[in-house]
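Hello forum,

I keep getting stuck at the same step: I have a sequence, I want structure tokens, and every attempt I make locally crashes halfway through. Rather than fight my setup again tonight, could one of you with a working pipeline run this one for me? It's a single chain of 184 residues.
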Amino acid sequence: MAAQGASKGLLARGMSGPVEIVGSFADESGCAGCIEKLRSAKPIAVQVFSPIPSHHIEHAIGKRKSPVRAFVLTGGILGVISALALTIGTSWEWNVVVGGKPIVSWPPFIVIMFELMVLFGGISAVLSFLFNARVPAFQIDARYSSRFSEDRFGIVVRCEEGDGARFETILKDAGAEEVGREAA
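Reply #2:
Ran it on my machine without issues. Output:
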């Protein structure tokens, strides 16, 4: 079995691979500053855990705007189109001529269009929020620590093993209270 591994080159490069470095911060500004330094150092991936919603950390991560609003707009437009199809189709299918008024009359349709726009927009907002938030989470991330939801900010940096020392130094210089290394 060892010969098979050696023939594939496993012994030549060793068992090294990506590692994850976990840093714990007491304050938001130190965590945000560290994230900006890490972005310029270009690791494989950076994941942040925060006990509070933080605009400073979101800005440091470079988080883009939520796509939920595009789904809500699409849902609202589909609601208006559905309402038009429903009301116009119903009027043409069952013609009720009242006092010489046209069969397809817009004023009563506006209420139905508004209601279905709100209904479809609301449903698409909830579903897209759940989808984009990855809810429900069936597994808790292995790197997550309960202290990251109490009073600490956590950064997990995924990098190659050879770059691990450089990223540990960046975390320590930025003010991390604890820095640990784990296999990825």
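Residues 35 and 61 are 7 Å apart (CA to CA). If your local run keeps crashing, start a new thread with the error log.
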